[in-house]
Amino acid sequence: MNDWEIAMDSLSKITITANSKNQPVTISGMADDLICIGVGTDAAVFQSPHAPKYAFKKFAEDKKEKVPIEAMVYERLGDSPYFSTSFHSYDDILVLSYEEGHTLYDCILQGIHIPEQIILDVEQAREYVRSKGLNPRDIHLKNILLQNGRAKLIDVSEYIQPGNDFRWEHLKKGYELYYHLIDGKPVPYWLAETVRKWYNQRKNYFSFEEFSKIVSNLLYKK
């Protein structure tokens, strides 16, 4: 018996339901020994005190087809300091290494300094992804961890999809041009969420410069 299997019974008591309009999943059921450490649009991630080295990514019933795809991506990425390790996959669960650290989104909310090394690390990670024949997409504030001053990328589910969503390019440019305005200063949750939602809704209608001007006006008025 693998040491992560101790959490399987508790995970079976949890149901994950996907929602429309790319909204986060809904979690139902109860298991006192599970801690939810992340919620996405396809899955939720849990940790068990009985197997603390692992993170259990449980997918919604109608998203289970993504489990083998994501497992394959991790297999192709192999051993890399920039990514989690995948240990096993079940019908609706991916067993990953638990990674400590704050997401960059949480760093923004809490005023935790984001060093330039993070930008350099993500650039290196993206090159590594390409060297494995994959496409580094969907890289944003909630998918990057600050871990001992270095970057760790989480959620590789879109790395098999074609095209460039430009999320990382916009984030990098925003860091270079505007991060000094908020460095070390907590950003109110309502403001961070407003910017995130506006970006997701309007990124195909505004240029980066136009969107940045709107955000700058918000920052100076908050």
- Strand content is 15-25%
Query: What Rg is obtained from the alpha carbons, in whole angstroms?
Result: 18 Å
Total number of beta strands:
10
The CATH class of the largest domain: Mainly Alpha
Structural class, from secondary structure content?
alpha+beta
> What is the global morphology?
globular
Give short descriptive properties of this protein:
2 domains; 222 residues; single chain; alpha+beta; globular; Phosphorylase Kinase, domain 1; Transferase(Phosphotransferase), domain 1; 7 helices; five-stranded antiparallel beta sheet; three-stranded antiparallel beta sheet; Serine/threonine protein kinase; Kinase-like_dom_sf
Give an account of the 3D structure.
The structure is a single chain. A hairpin with an 8-residue loop joins β1 and β2 (26-29). α6 (189-202) runs antiparallel to α7 (208-221). The protein has helices spanning 8-11, 66-77, 104-110, 116-131, 167-178, 189-202, 208-221; strands at residues 14-17, 26-29, 35-39, 43-47, 54-59, 86-89, 93-97, 102-103, 144-147, 150-153. The protein is 36% helix and 19% strand. The termini are far apart. It is of the alpha+beta class. It is globular. The mean pLDDT is 91. It is built from 7 helices and 10 strands. It has 2 domains: 3-97, Phosphorylase Kinase, domain 1, CATH 3.30.200.20; 102-221, Transferase(Phosphotransferase), domain 1, CATH 1.10.510. This is Serine/threonine protein kinase.
